[in-house]
Amino acid sequence: MQRYAFALFAICAVAVYAILVLRPDPAVEFEAELSGMEPAEALARLEARDGRVDLTENLRLLQARLATAAGDLDAARAAYEEIIATGSPTARLFDELADVAALSGDLAAAAAFKARAQDMEPQADRRQALGYWYRLLGDEAEETRLLVATAPERLTDFERERLAALLLARGETDAYRDLHMAISETGGEGALAARRRLLELGIDAGRPDEALELALGWFRMEPHRKEGLDASLRTLVGRGALDQAVRLATVAVGTDPEIGPVPVTAFIDTGHGGIGRRLQALWLAGDAGLDGQDWQALVRVAERTGDLTGLREALARASHRRSPDGIAADAPPPATVFLQFLRYQGARALLPYQGAMTSQTFEGAPLVGAAWYGWLRQPTATYDYLLAAAEGPLTDWDRAIWMSVASDLRGTPFFRSLLAGAPRDAGLRELLSRDVRSPVATDARAESSAPTGG
């Protein structure tokens, strides 16, 4: 019997302990009750309870957030600061306090709180928001400290530009150089911009040879990267370091002839046609295969300088070069190649290339087709290609050639049709209008084939 009484006592003790342990915490019950109320009502209940009992950290945080939502920013800030003073603050808590301070107009305090959050948990979004506040405050020292504390490759393009400007404004040229050296090794567009800055810095400091060594180092590190070489050359030329640019280009073409179009076009585009032509000769002597971009570079040289030497050499080579399996080693020349010969030397210059005078070529450059058939005295084909040429974009130079070819049709119904306004190009119609006052539209092909009276 005594044993049963002891067992019953043990069961009762366990039951009482379970009731005490499993009873919901009053603070938790209160939180649940507040969550079902409107914010204003919940805040009133909290404030009524505050002072009579100690609020838990969760309730104090809820009070701060409710006060913020209600627009009582002083109460919200006081609640947040009490949590920070008595508890274990988190980065998120400082973020919220920073937002409250900003809403109340105390931007300096907001930045200080946001900085504490960033120190605890560095984040890109938080850093960018803090940087913006520092700019509003005009606090360049703190903004610099913030950006310097982050690895350059993690900064946005704007932040890099901003940090560079801050360092220059403070006269910290060594730090400025170190920043761009770090960025220059990251790859991508940001790296190219950093390299340009480094070259500019060296040249402006009177050390162009040092800038050249940097550019040579980048090229040797990435010998096939055309964008990097182009950026280096254009920066050197633009800053007046022409000798250094020529040396870089010469090394590049000598190392990799296939990269030749890059320095050639860089010098041609910057007005140094003589250097561009010399580099063109060095490039072609390297016996590199020609692709579409290579032909475009040769065309650009001819367009800008009037020198057709490179095109002639390339055309002569392309006509007989074959790979071991019998396939042409070079891409076929585009139609714009023959347009250069027409522009500078007239239709007669096309005769050595009559094997390339095909419908495919004329489709790409109808003006070449018109001039070719004009030379062969085939008026129907000449007329058709004149109309086709008038459909595309024409330079004033091309219009002059067009008018010259069209003049060979004088006295034919084709010319009268042109005078009647057949071309769509407004510039051509204006030129043609000077030849006639009252054109009468005709069907040129029908008239040319109609029987004449005897």
How would you characterize this protein structure?
- It comes from Rubellimicrobium roseum.
- The N and C termini lie far apart (151 Å).
- The protein has helices at 2-22, 26-35, 39-49, 57-70, 73-86, 91-103, 107-120, 124-137, 140-148, 157-169, 173-184, 189-204, 208-221, 226-238, 242-255, 261-269, 273-285, 292-305, 309-318, 335-345, 359-364, 366-375, 379-389, 396-407, 413-419, 426-433, 444-449.
- The protein is mainly alpha-helical and 454 residues long.
- Helix 8 (124-137) runs antiparallel to helix 9.
- The chain is elongated and about 105 Å long.
- Mean pLDDT is 82; it is low at 4-27, 322-327, 437-443 and 449-454.
- Helix content is 70%, strand content 0%.
